[in-house]
Amino acid sequence: MIARIGRITLRVALGVLISFIIFLLIFDRLVQFRMDDKELQTFFHSRKLEPQISYYKAKGRTIRYLGVGTSPEATILFIHGAPSSLSYWKGYLSDSLLLARATMYAVDRPGYGYSGLADAMPDLAMQAAVIKPIIDSLHKAHHPIILVGVSYGAPIAARLVMDNPQLVDGLVLMAPPLGPGREKIFWFTYLVESPFINWFIPRMLQTANKEKVHHREELTKMLPLWDSIHIPVAYLQGEDDGLVDTTNVSFAKEHLRNAPSLEIRMLPGRGHLIAFAEKDQIDKAILDILNKCEGR
Description:
Blueprint: H1 2-30, H2 37-45, E1 52-58, E2 61-68, E3 75-79, H3 90-93, H4 96-99, E4 103-107, H5 124-131, E5 145-150, H6 153-163, E6 170-174, H7 195-198, H8 203-222, E7 233-238, H9 248-255, E8 262-267, H10 274-277, H11 279-294
Parallel strand pairs: 3-4, 3-5, 5-6, 6-7, 7-8
Antiparallel strand pairs: 1-2, 2-4
Helix pairs in contact: 5-6
């Protein structure tokens, strides 16, 4: 009788364990926030557009990016935040107003999408160097070249400009955490880095958490470099942003002092996800920067 109860208990325990593992695998799949190549092609083909999905090697990493359009007038590169992937920008990459003015690209940052999911690269200078080939060596990118970065992607865009001051012509920063310590840190952020807990976290969130843990020190490294930005900058943020402190506005005003123009747009009633809620405003900011660059 006791042996039978023991066998039943063991079966129940194994069943629970297997169910838990299956749940983790499904949960991981659900929160990847990425589209594979076929899904991207289907999306753009439905809009009568032909996307160019490519992979390249940089700093020992395989990086995926997507290009849309053939305009020789300008180049726009979109850099997503955390957690996310290049599919975040699909609405912009299929925007007829932007396509009329520029060839556009978006990239899966290291650790996201199909650029090595969960293989984080928290070093912002390294990320900028890994992304640089898209507008440098992989294509004959047409100037003006505009970088658009949202959230965590914004300081990466800024870092790319700092390290390559002659390469980029304009910068659009959306909900940008620019100053060290001027973003929300959750109580569980450092706890998640524990190997035991980290194993249970979906891979995309592992990358995001790793980046978050190192973000303050990475932004601190950038403090002496802001004076090297000598291009027009647009700054957009929701007035009710609960993730990135709005004191980043004062940081931008103080540290982007060598930018020939700094246009700041604080959006009333909006939180952190302004890329979707205020797309018209973002489009206008991109086109305004593009016009300024063409007039220089």
